[in-house]
Write a structure and sequence with these properties.
This protein is an alpha+beta fold. Helix content is 25%, strand content 40%.
């Protein structure tokens, strides 16, 4: 939910602390595209109505621990609209050296 809030506010500094450099480059392009689009009603605010998470797997790849987590639930992107379902797999990475916590390395929408 913290990441979603940072995304809604286009808070690049906060997003950098939650994503790998590669993921941040990808998201930076999406944020730039979003800024070019006229947005009715001002700032985006996504409400996470229901959130479930399931660890799909974790590995030891030498320098880091890659993991995949499936997130699903309901979100509301417009205050006047009902919630809609979502389902995504997030690939996460945590360096073994302790230089960072868990970082988002990729997101795949399933629904």
């Amino acid at each position: 939910m913290t990441l979603q809030d940072a995304w809604d506010r286009a808070d690049v500094k906060s997003l950098r602390g939650m994503m790998t450099d590669e993921m941040m480059r990808e998201m930076g392009g999406q944020l730039a595209e979003r800024e070019r689009q006229p947005q009715a009603g001002g700032t985006q605010k996504t409400e996470v109505v229901l959130l479930e998470a399931q660890l799909l797997g974790i590995e030891d790849s030498g320098a880091d621990y890659p993991a995949s987590v499936e997130f699903s639930g309901m979100i509301r992107e417009e205050p006047s609209a009902g919630p809609s379902p979502f389902r995504e797999v997030w690939n996460m990475s945590k360096p073994k050296d302790g230089s960072a916590g868990w970082l988002v390395a990729g997101v795949q929408a399933l629904q």
